[in-house]
Structure formats: structure tokens, C-alpha cells
Amino acid sequence: MAVAGTMLTPAITNLLLEGGGKEAPSLRRDTNLIVNATQLDYRCALPSDNVTRIERLTDDSTDFVAVDPTAAEGEPVVGSLEYALISRENYGEWVYIDDVKVREDWRRKGVATQLIKRLLAYIKKGWPELDGAFLLVETLNPNSPQNLYKKIGFVYKGKSAHYDGFAFHFNSSSADNLPTDLPPTAMRLPTTNDYFVVDTLHDLFDPVEPK
């Protein structure tokens, strides 16, 4: 959500985890075995990926996607989310997650869970100095996914506007249970100065005075 005159130039950090950014041949899936979320590929979106979105919700964010490697050309993306780094003095460094979506024919198959857990695992591995991640849930949403987030390890942090805020801490026991079978992939960590994300950070977290 952009505000004219308040945005800073985003800092983009690129990281190649464990090699070439392409899955080794031995890790390719049998086209007859794509039956659940654990068998999908999880990576940053490519320019050629068809990520359906009316508008980007978070300034300077990037997309992390779940991909069916056996799908027809132009139809591989079955789930996506936006994410970006937010960093403020005395508030730490956090990844903000937004707009988690799963294609209708892949819902209730664990895609959202794997999508978030894989993102957290890659970020924790590539940037272990970060504090964790946070996201928002609409308070009055009758189909709220907060139980899904709690199962992953997110904990309730409080309210921001008309949302409930949840945080995942990289020093928690839940972080120890993140996936470790991470195929090589090129990860990006863009920085956002989106005013809404900054306000949310201040609402959910208490400032920590420097030692």
C-alpha cells in the first residue's frame, strides 16, 4: 500500500541456497505421483509464472509459489503468497507474509501449510539472524485460517486495526520442526517500507531498548 513521498528505495537481497537454483535430476517427480502438497515444488515465482492477482497488497514484496511440475504449460502454479522483510530499529527484523492463496482444485490438500512452512524454512536457513515472520487474519472472517497458522507455530500477538496478528519466532520449538529436505533454489528477500506493514509491526511488537 503505497503513500506518495513516503517510500524508500527497496533493498533487494538475493540468496542462492545450496547451488544452482534448479532441482537436480534425481529430485524430479514422477508425473504419476503428484497427489499431495508434499510432492509439489516450492520456490520464488518466475516472470513466466501465472500468479493471479488484481494488485500487489504489499509494496516491494515478492511471490513464493507452490508449483506442480507435471502440469500443462502455463498452469503450474497451484498456490502463492507475498512476502517481504520489514526492519525497524528496536523492533527487530521480520518477514511479513500476505495474501496466501491456493487454487480451488488444490484446496484442503495441505498446500497452504506446506507453502508457509517451506518459505519459513528457506528464510531461516538463508537469513538465520532474522527474528521470524508475522501475518494478519481478519477478525470477523468466518473462514479464518488462524487454526492453520497456529498448527504451524504462529502465536497470537494482538490486534492491528481490524485484524488479529500472529507471529512465528525462529528461536521457537516450532522452528526446529520446519522442513529440512529443501531442494536447491534461488531465494530473494526484498525489503518493504509499506506504511501499513510498518504500523502493523509497531502494533504487534513491543520495542526492545538496545543493550
From TrEMBL:
Positions of the N-acetyltransferase domain: 25-192
Any GO molecular function: acyltransferase activity, transferring groups other than amino-acyl groups
Xref: Gene3D superfamilies: 3.40.630.30
Coiled coil: none
Stated name of the protein: N-acetyltransferase domain-containing protein
Organism: Perkinsus olseni
